[in-house]
Amino acid sequence: MRKGKPNDPERRSRILRAALEVIASDGVHAASYRRIAAQADVPLGSTTYYFADLETLIVSAFETLRYGLEPRYAAPLRGARTDADVVDALVAATCGSTAPRPADIRLYEEMHLYGARSPRVADLLRDLQEESLVILRRSLSDGAARAVDALMWGWWSYRALHADKPLDEGMVRDAYCALVEFSTVDSAAREVRSRN
């Protein structure tokens, strides 16, 4: 520190980005203070200064992923006005212009795997899923929203394992159209039941 100011005010952010780069490249099991510090090009002591333990560093890095989902996924769905708009936004988020890159998908996969062992990451995953469902429920019934959420995560996983076999956009569109149609029928049926 010089005159009470940190030498590098962006250091914490660089450490978090470096942690995600290490995890995307080699998995959570490869993330160590030393490896992350080297990737961030910071002294080893900086990682322990900002993050008291490695678990906190990993969880904090995963928490930054939620902010990347907002423009890619939530914003287009918020702007959807018709069923066709909803389907277009879902297709784009699955295999089109707003779909995650392979490195992003690897991070989501690593987060899911780590969540099986880390209650803190499991809580983060539940929060992410609930945020996703809140957005989806604006246009879909609860059942259809849950099906869409599960299907999209499944297709992202497929993409991670089958980079040489891209998803058929027509098939993806047909599946989402069917779920949107189911949602309309499901909502109408619920309304009829509530009147009786």
Automatic annotation (TrEMBL):
The keyword DNA-binding applies. Pfam families: TetR_N. It comes from the Bacteria. Keywords: DNA-binding. Residues 32-51 bind DNA. One of its GO terms (molecular function) is transcription cis-regulatory region binding. Residues 9-69 form the HTH tetR-type domain. This is TetR family transcriptional regulator. It comes from Cryobacterium arcticum. The lineage of its organism: Bacteria, Bacillati, Actinomycetota, Actinomycetes, Micrococcales.
